Structures are given as structure tokens and as C-alpha cells.
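User: Hey, my collaborator sent me this sequence without any context and asked if I could get a structure. I don't really work with proteins. Can you help?
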Amino acid sequence: MTKRIELDGQSLTIAQVVEVAYGEANQPKVVIKADAQQQVKSAADAVQKLLERGEVAYGITTGFGAFKDKVIPLEDVKKLQKNIVMSHAVGMGDFYDIPTTRAIMLIRANTLSRGHSGIRLATLQLLLAMLNEGIHPTIPEKGSLGASGDLAPLAHMALVMIGMGEAEYKGEILSGAEALQRAGLAPVELAAKEGLALTNGTSVMCALGTLMVHQSERLCGVIDAAGALSLEALHGTPLAFDERIHNLRPFPRQIGTAKHLRELLEGSEFTRDYDPANVQDAYTLRCMPQVHGAARDSIAYTRWVMEIELNSVTDNPLIFIDGEEITVLSGGNFHGEPLAIAMDYLAIAITELGNISERRIMRLTDECSNSQALPAFLTQEGGLNSGFMITQYTAAALATENKVLSHPASVDSIPTSANVEDHVSMGLTAGLKLRQVVQNVEHIVATELMAAAQGVDFRKQDVGENANLGKGTAPIYASIREEVPFIEEDTVLYKYIAAVKSLIASGALDDAMC
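Assistant: No problem. I've predicted the 3D structure and written it out in C-alpha cell form, which is a compact way to encode the shape of the chain:
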């Protein structure tokens, strides 16, 4: 039986977004709850009543932005909605991948399901039919300022609904009209308010933020494992993770990270106990709970923001119905500032994870830093072989790129629409930068895992071939070794790094720790 996800504009979860975005087999069917359908119908009926009364309402019987004072004749109301979709579809750059596109469509449908936007049920159901049938509009990544929502990207999504634009369907890029026809669907003629409802909102930046929260949570578990495996390769001590230390500075996610590291290293024969000649490790090993825990704080905050935004109504104006009374209110829920700040914060935190991981790679490859516990650049015949020398260069390059990308987009603004829209969030820019930071750090951590596994194999010469790794690091090491052999002499490494990065991004390493 096909699983169903029922939208009501109030209960969509991050897990459901991820399931719809990435689920290939047994893709859930997305529908609108019965009571939400009635709310959508009521709001659409209210729009028609406003037209019949001849009332002036922004975006329904007026132009948009700086044209807010231009009243539109009733006979042109439908054309107005088609025009907003066509004129706003000016995005540039690469297209969003299919998972992100599916997340955008789902989130947009959910906010419209709340019944304050005035879209007709049939129009909303077309958007869901496209999602369920696998019609994915080609949406350029760039062009949104994150205020008045994500106008340009969402216009590209809406183009397909009116039989224009382009879409991916079953592996082909087709015209919007052809994609709909092949799936047995028909384009819609937009009614009053519908073009504005489809394009005016934060669904694109919310999709990026939601998916990056998911990826960041996976990454945080794996970077603990990478750090723990590096600690074993460097003959470090877990004493800095003693819960008594962290209870005296009770940040909950610092405490949680220390606990996770203790669990990962439980039973390890590669670590050292108290040694009066070597009482503490370098910060990159000793301070993992403090640094990794702080990143988890940022992820938790961003999750909180995205969970609220997933179930928010973010277009403008909004329609409120109280008996026979209809009120149309103009506001600013489309402004992406809460998301922009959260994604900038998360990018900074994930950059720090990359920084500390890159420094551990340096310690693994520099025999002076690791007190000659490991050979230089993790190779036995240094000079003839460069070993892992250049992997640290690449990690350093990515870490440095992330420092540039971590400059917050949300502190910038540029006025638009003849200075009517005079402050913008740059939220989508924050989301695109965050995505690149996360991908860069996945590569850095993949490199650390490879280097740590190489270091562990060298350490076996001292502790014994059958010595036990930690309870949690042993399965991680085994997973790495399924993809990457011990590197005895120089070989091409980039494919190995990519393979381990895929293990991180897919969640396979998270599963291995369970």
C-alpha cells in the first residue's frame, strides 16, 4: 500500500520533506487533508466575492510592488496572474537538483494548504499531481533576494503549471506543456490571486534550509566518529571527555557530544590512559565536545526555525474569513530574515567543523605534530611517495573557501521595486552558500576518515593486528575499508575521497554507528 502524506499547512515535518525529496522507492503520495481542502475552497470563494463586490485588494485587483496603486480592470484579472508568472521567471544559473525541487514543491503546497492564500483547490491539486507524477520544473538557482519571497525561482515552478517553461520528466527535459501531457495532466488557467500565491513566499530558501539541517545532522554524527578515529590513530586520550568536566559547563550539546565520543571509543585499545609524561592532547582532539557541540547548537536552532517556517503562511496579502466578513491584510511574512540569519549561523558553525577536521588531518600527516606516532604523510617510503600530503592541501583549500562563504548574506540588503521593497534578507543566497559549505565539509571529513583509517593501520604495528578499536569507531573503520584499501604506495586518491563523501551524504556511516 502506498504511503500517504496529508498536508494541512500545520503539521509538515523535516523528516517528511526529506522522504519526499529523496525517497526513490515507495515514494509517498502527497494529498491535502479533507478539512484543509475546505479551508482552501473558502479562501478561494472569498476572493471571488471580493471581485464581485468590486473591492480593491493588493495583488488581486492591483498591480504588484511599485504598481500597488494601479487598479486592474476585472476583465484583466486573470491576465494579471499569468503576467506575474511570466514576467517574474527571470532566474539564472544552474537548475536545482531534483530532491531540492521536490522539497520546494512540497513546501509551497503545504503553505497554500493552510487556506489563507486564495488559491483554488484544483490549482493546488495540480501542483501536487506534478509532484506525485514526478514532473519537476527546471528552477534556476539564482535570482531571489529573499524578500517578497523567492519570486523568480517560484515563477519558474509556476510556469509549468500554466503549460509554459520546462520540466524534467522521467529523465528528459521537456516543455512544460509536453511534460504535463505525458503525465496525463492539463495546464491551469490562473484565477485571481493565484499567480501571486504561487510565487510569493519563502519555499525555496526553506527547502534549502530544511535539507541542509538534515545533512548537517548526519555530518555531526560522522565528524564525531572521524575525530574519535583520529584520536585512536594519534594515540590520544579520552580523559578530556569525562562527564565530570562537561557537567561543570552544562551546555547540553557539549555534554551530549562528550557522551557520544565516550561511546564511540568504548573498549578501544588504541587510546592511552593517564600518562604523566603526556597529560593532554592538542585542542583539535581535546576540545571536540566544545567545538562539535557548539555546531550542534546551531543545527538545533536552524531546525527550530525551519520547523516553524515549514508550517507558516508566507505569501501576501493574506485572507481572513470570520463568518461573512472577509478581511485582506497586507504584511511581510514573505520576508526571509529569520531563515537568512539561521542559515548564516549554521554555515559559520559547519565551517568550524571543517576547520577542526582539517587541522586533525594536518596532525595525522605531520610527523612532528604527532610526535612521530605516524610516518610523515602516512606513507612508508616518503620522498618516493607523497602519500596523503596533498589531501591536506585540498582540505585546507576547502576550509579556506568556507571562510569566505561564511560571510553572512543576511547583513546585506539592496533596495528594489522603485524603493518600495527597500530591505531584503538575501535568504536564498545564505541557503546556497550554506549548501556549498556543507558539501565542502563532507569532503573534508571524508579525507579525515581516510587519513585516520590509514593511521590506525600504521598503529597496528605497535598495538597488534588484532587490537580492538572503539565500539563505535570499529564499524566506521570497517565501512571505510570497504571503499578504500590501505594505501601502500602512491595511487589516484580522488575517487576514494568521493566514495567516502558519498557514505557521509547518504547516511550510511550514521547507520554503521547504530
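In plain terms: The CA atoms of residues 21 and 102 lie 5 Å apart. You can pass these C-alpha cells on to your collaborator as they are.
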